[in-house]
Amino acid sequence: MIKITGKTATKKLLIRKSMAKLFQSFVYSKLPAIEHLGYQSKSGKVFKSMNFKIEYKENEFIIFYSALNKKYEELIALEILQNGLKLGEVKFPSITLEVIQREVDENINELNVRGYVVAAMKNKLTGKKIYLQPGDPRHNELITKHTLDKYQTLLQKEYKGKLEIIPTWQSPKEKVFYYDKGKTIAWLATYTIKANSLMLNLILNTGLGAESMQNLGFVEVNK
Question: The dihedral of CA 81, 83, 86, 87: what is its sign?
């Protein structure tokens, strides 16, 4: 994983709602076209092999970016080191980069993580999306199925072993995430994940739940 810290020249730039779209576009422009198109599963779902999270502190932006293919992390880091970071019309005059190793060893089979994980389903009458809270059993069913499907699609093999994703706490208040002209609702929550190390690393590198390339699904390991 790489951590990108940048500051804009002023605090008055109103770009927070567009940052996810801008950073996603930046990443895709530097990588092979397949990463933009994604990888289609047998069920028709499309999965992405990377994930990111953006944090804001006044005019400081902190971006965490991880990819299943570690060469992509190196490529993005090298691009920023050589040419700086420009997202749309916004240039970050001050940038620092940090490489963080967070993959687990093969003997690890349980992690406690936290993050904003998306699970949604359509209302059959209105056709609108319903965003499920982590405390809703359907949330757990959807993200577990999604994770198994993603494993098979990205690694091209069936998952054999235990997979338990257990929500252990959730924030009572939701948060709205913006991407392009759309909005997504998610709740900060903690999860205990029991799985083999290959599955755990897949989750750490590509996120948990839907919208992994829209500033969602990124999970951090609780110390």
Answer: negative
Measured in degrees and rounded to the nearest 5, phi and psi for residue 122 equal -90, 140
**Does residue 126 register a pLDDT over 80?**
yes
pLDDT in tens, 10-21: 666 566 778 889
CATH topology of domain 2-99: Alpha-Beta Plaits (3.30.70)
Q: Domain 110-221 belongs to what topology? A: Alpha-Beta Plaits (3.30.70)
Q: What's the first-to-final CA gap in the chain, in angstroms? A: 17
Strands (E), 94-141: 94-99, 110-116, 120-122, 129-131
pLDDT of residue 19: 85
Q: Which two tokens stand for residue 42?
A: 């047998």
Residue 142 phi/psi, 5° resolution? -70, -45
- pLDDT higher than threshold 90 for residue 89: no
CB of 101 within 8 A of CB of 79?
no
